């Protein structure tokens, strides 16, 4: 079994260039850098940091298909660097797409004139817009579900925030002459399964969401080309909705008049109806019992302290974190340092738009020796707030339980 320590030994610690100083200064919290203590037995001790080509070392969940999460130290900044951005795939055949030969086909029975775009066409024939938005996997924090549920046992880092730039999907659909009978827009990407029997990863969204002015075909991320692992040369960006709809290496966009019945929409990425305070509906895909996951629930993360860290009595220190939601924007973040009895407002940082991470800070002042339990709770502008009790659901989605970080005051 390889542990993080073996990995550090094997690499002399050199690979930790950007996360290294933080980790070194939190040596006592070594395991906490790999994820929260609630992860299933053995997950933390068997976790390793590993660098995919072009990436800094990320927390490896699986190699085939590649699933790597971002260590939480990177969330001390509002924008997640491209080379530290998490990676999530369902299928293992992931071709390196060449920009020059890439083509994007727009078609389906609900467009009048099918189109084929080159990367140049996408960049020059349409208005270009840039939007800061959180890409969060529906299953972020799945590993913290108790009882545990199956799937990638993600900790806290199956998410990231970036400035995405590209053409509006609606402009491209309108160029192809979207018909009024269009019901859903279906996306496919260049990746595929290793066995023909594996259902291809194809996703659809309701036509109203595809026509939202914030939904993009993006070819730039934080000012650079998309990394291969995050969808080069272009991906769909659906601000406010979970990452599952953000098709990477997108190669076809089809407007259809009937509900798409592919596995990844019909059978996966579903939540029970009526359990979550969700506003956006995907009506053409609803059944009596469940519905596709849509917007991200309001959430927050404490980013600069870890369980077990020592702080000094009478020595004020800064607690930092981020908050985000499905696009209403963050109204406030409250922090408790006594396990949830008293809550006080944190100071919100710069507003990069309603789909972005919003940073917050709070000065804590430990007055007594012992354990100090820090909690943070975000509320959005629609009045939704984080839960204290887990909302159980079979696939382990929408974990937004208020975190507890216990510090040792001496
Ligand atoms: N082509 C392709 N696109 C995809 C996926 C995939 O497996 N293949 N996974 C989706 C899911 S479930 C998520 S959470 C996001 C993750 O985006 P990232 O890997 O850029 O972080 O990509 C989405 N787009
Ligand atoms: Mo996902």
Plain-language structure description:
The chain has 410 residues and is mainly β. It has three domains: 4-80, no CATH class; 104-292, Sulfite Oxidase, Chain A, domain 2 (Alpha-Beta Complex); 299-409, Immunoglobulin-like (Sandwich), CATH 2.60.40. 8% of the residues lie in helices and 30% in strands. It contains six helices and 25 strands. It starts with a helix and ends with a strand. The protein binds the ligand Nc1nc2c(c(=O)[nH]1)N[C@H]1C(S)=C(S)[C@@H](COP(=O)(O)O)O[C@H]1N2 and molybdenum atom (MO).
Briefly note the CATH topology name of the largest domain: Sulfite Oxidase, Chain A, domain 2
Q: Which CATH architecture of the largest domain?
A: Alpha-Beta Complex
CATH superfamily of the largest domain: Oxidoreductase, molybdopterin-binding domain
- Major beta sheet, strand line-up: 6-5-14-9-10
Residues in helices, as a percent range: under 10%
List the uncertain runs.
1-30
By secondary-structure content and strand pairing, the structural class works out as mainly beta
Using the CA coordinates, give the radius of gyration. Answer: 21 Å
CATH class of the largest domain: Alpha Beta
Task: Report the sheet with the most strands, covering strand number, pairing sense and barrel closure.
Answer: 5 strands, mixed
Bound molecules: the ligand Nc1nc2c(c(=O)[nH]1)N[C@H]1C(S)=C(S)[C@@H](COP(=O)(O)O)O[C@H]1N2, molybdenum atom
- Number of individual domains: 3
Strand content: 25-35%
Average the pLDDT over all residues and give the rounded result.
Answer: 92
What is the general shape?
globular
First-residue to last-residue Cα separation: 36 Å
Please give the count of helices. Answer: 6
Number of strands: 25
């Amino acid at each position: 079994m390889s542990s993080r320590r073996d990995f550090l030994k094997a690499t002399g610690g050199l690979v930790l260039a950007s996360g290294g100083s933080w980790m070194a200064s939190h040596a006592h919290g070594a395991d906490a850098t790999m994820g929260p203590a609630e992860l299933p037995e053995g997950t933390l001790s068997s976790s390793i940091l590993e660098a995919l080509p072009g990436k800094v070392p990320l927390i490896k969940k699986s190699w085939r298909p590649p699933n790597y999460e971002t260590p939480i130290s990177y969330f001390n900044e509002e924008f997640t660097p491209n080379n530290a951005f998490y990676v999530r795939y369902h299928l293992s055949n992931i071709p390196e797409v060449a920009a020059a030969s890439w083509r994007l086909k727009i078609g389906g029975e609900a467009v009048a004139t099918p189109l084929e775009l080159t990367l140049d066409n996408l960049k020059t024939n349409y208005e270009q817009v840039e939007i800061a938005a959180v890409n969060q996997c529906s299953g972020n924090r799945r590993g913290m579900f108790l009882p545990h549920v199956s799937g990638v046992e993600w900790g806290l880092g199956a998410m990231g925030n970036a400035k995405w730039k590209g053409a509006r999907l609606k402009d491209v659909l309108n160029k192809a002459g979207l018909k009024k009978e269009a019901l859903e827009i279906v996306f496919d990407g260049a990746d595929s399964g290793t066995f023909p029997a594996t259902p291809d990863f194809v996703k659809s969204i309701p036509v109203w969401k595809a026509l939202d002015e914030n939904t993009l075909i993006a070819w730039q991320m934080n000012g650079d080309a998309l990394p291969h692992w995050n969808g080069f040369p272009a991906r769909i960006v659906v601000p406010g909705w979970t990452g599952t709809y953000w098709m990477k290496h997108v190669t076809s966009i089809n407007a259809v008049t009937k509900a798409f019945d592919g596995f990844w929409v019909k059978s996966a990425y579903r939540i029970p109806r009526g359990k979550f305070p969700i506003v956006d509906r995907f009506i053409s895909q609803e059944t009596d019992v469940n519905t596709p996951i849509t917007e991200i629930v309001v959430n927050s993360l404490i980013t600069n302290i870890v369980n077990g860290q020592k702080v000094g009595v009478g020595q004020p220190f800064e607690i930092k974190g981020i908050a985000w939601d499905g696009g209403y924007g963050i109204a406030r973040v409250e922090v408790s340092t006594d396990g949830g009895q008293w809550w006080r407002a944190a100071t919100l940082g710069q507003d990069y738009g309603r789909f972005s991470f919003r940073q917050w800070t709070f000065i804590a002042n430990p007055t007594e020796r012992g354990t100090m339990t820090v909690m943070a709770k975000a509320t959005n502008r629609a009045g939704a707030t984080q839960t204290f009790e887990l909302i159980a659901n079979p696939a382990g989605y929408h974990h937004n339980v208020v975190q507890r970080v216990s510090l040792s005051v001496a």
